[in-house]
Design brief:
binds magnesium ion; four-stranded antiparallel beta sheet; six-stranded mixed beta sheet; binds adenosine-5'-diphosphate; globular; single chain; 221 residues; alpha/beta; 35% helix
């Protein structure tokens, strides 16, 4: 079992009011594959990805990734888990403005103390077709190119799980499609699990399985 999510509960408290977002959410992923998560805005899709990515913790329930119970981890263990297992692509690209494309892709490799980070980052940039933009800063790149740098950064450490939160949401249709094809192809080649949050039902159909987040739970559709 690559991923096991068991009765996860997550809410936010704001101005002394409790907002329940996820309640009794389950998910099992046994082998490398792509799954799409559809759901209305505000249904808790990004919240769920942040729990899988170890960016936030559930209030109750358990998340086990490759045999590791991440809900029981200390902050330092969680940071290590995140770096070693997870690649994230957000709707907003979240690149470091003062770093070149190459430096952005190198960053997680350096944090992980991987050998030859520059070579590995360059290879990832080649895979997303941006070898000739390696020394450009984000403001010198188009939106689609920035997202391809973000994809290269996510895949360079060879994570087992790629989380993509509406990765084509800020791109025009054609550019969005080319970025998505790249993500699908890279995940397939690497045998990674892809968890894709999207509004786009056509895009969701390209995945092996579709779920909908509604009523605070995931349902296979
Ligand atoms: N940090 C937070 N503090 C308080 N409420 C939040 C926070 N993050 C998200 N929410 C609320 O939780 C609900 C789910 O948000 P989110 O997971 O971002 O939904 P989605 O990604 O499906 O649009 C929304 O109602 C949102 O306003
Ligand atoms: Mg969201």
């Amino acid at each position: 079992m690559i991923l096991e999510v068991d009765k996860v509960v997550k809410g936010y408290t704001q101005a002394s009011k409790k907002l329940d977002v996820l309640d009794g959410l389950d998910l099992q992923i046994e082998r490398p594959k792509s799954i799409a998560i559809l759901g209305k805005s505000g249904s808790g899709k990004s919240t769920f990805l942040s729990l899988l990515g170890g960016l936030d913790r559930p209030d109750e329930g358990k998340i086990v990734v490759n045999g590791q119970n991440i809900t029981a981890m200390k902050e330092s263990e969680l940071a290590k888990y995140r770096a070693e297992n997870i690649g994230i692509v957000f709707q907003q690209f979240h690149l470091m403005k003062t770093f070149t494309a190459l430096e952005n892709v190198m960053l997680p490799l350096e944090i992980l103390k991987k050998e030859n980070p520059r070579e590995k980052a360059m290879k990832a940039l080649e895979q997303v077709g941006l070898a000739d933009r390696a020394n450009h800063f984000p403001h010198q790149l188009s939106g689609g190119e920035c997202q391809r740098v973000a994809v290269a950064r996510a895949i360079a450490p060879e994570p087992k799980i790629i989380l993509a939160d509406e990765p084509s949401g800020n791109l025009d249709t054609e550019t969005g499609e080319s970025v998505m094809n790249m993500i699908f192809e890279l995940c397939q080649r690497r045998e990674s699990v892809l968890i894709l949050v999207t509004h786009d039902t056509d895009l969701a159909r390209s995945c092996d399985q579709i779920y909908e987040l509604s009523s605070k739970k995931l349902k296979a559709i």
